[in-house]
């Protein structure tokens, strides 16, 4: 009979071999769950966590072990398909998944039988995806996480007002050249501009996403601001306000990026930030595709 020490050594080797062959972790090597990932984010975000927030789980089981994290501006079906194909099952999205700010579907007339909604939910369930929204607290950071990413993508850090992260003093250019430069830097397919193309611009206000008419008007009322750059707006509000200002001869203009391009780089910034403290799991930025296109003349 072989010595006891040899038996113990042989048994340990056998167990290790089985673990390697089957992919089974031992000695406590377990994956983080989605709930644990979010708890880590809450610990590192640097602002008090609010109870009244949209930053909650939207789909899936929070106790699901995470195989990979996909960070995106918007959890479109296209994004979910690409994320799942890359082995990611936790989706961190900045904007809603189900077409409403609170991710309620009451506005759909046949919400229980809506085919678009049903197909998206079926895909999420079939692939075991967990979706969590990161909106309020990412914006609440100082600097605002979305704003910081957009400023970096635009290369405007050196132009940023030291007293307001949303204001920029740039070397003089025309509205047309400014819009073309932004379009190129952000890779936007469709951009809309209100104002005189040769308007001389030196002061810009940047309001990504859908900040709302009151904030848009507040920025435009600043005497020095010639151009407001936004994601989107109700056209009977901000758009007509600027159009009337132009008709009145005021030195005002508006550049509309659309929602996804106006905040996309902010979630790429979020991906970089997450990688500084979530090292146990792979994290991938999955950009949402711009939905608009324009026919050729």
What does this structure look like?
It is a single chain. The chain is an alpha/beta fold and about 300 residues long. The chain folds into 3 domains: about 1-30; about 35-140, 3-Layer(aba) Sandwich (Udp-n-acetylmuramoylalanyl-d-glutamate--2,6- Diaminopimelate Ligase, Chain: A, domain 1), CATH 3.40.1390; about 145-260, NIF3 (NGG1p interacting factor 3)-like (Udp-n-acetylmuramoylalanyl-d-glutamate--2,6- Diaminopimelate Ligase, Chain: A, domain 1, 3-Layer(aba) Sandwich), CATH 3.40.1390. Helices cover about 40% and strands about 20% of the residues. It contains 10 helices and 11 strands. The protein has helices at about 5-20, 35-45, 75-85, 115-125, 135-140, 145-155, 175-185, 215-220, 235-245, 260-275, and strands at about 55-60, 70-75, 90-95, 130-135, 160, 165-175, 190-195, 200-205, 225-230, 255, 285. The strands form 2 sheets. It has a 6-stranded mixed sheet, with helices on both faces. Helix 6 packs across helix 10 (about 260-275) and helix 8 packs parallel to helix 9 (about 235-245).
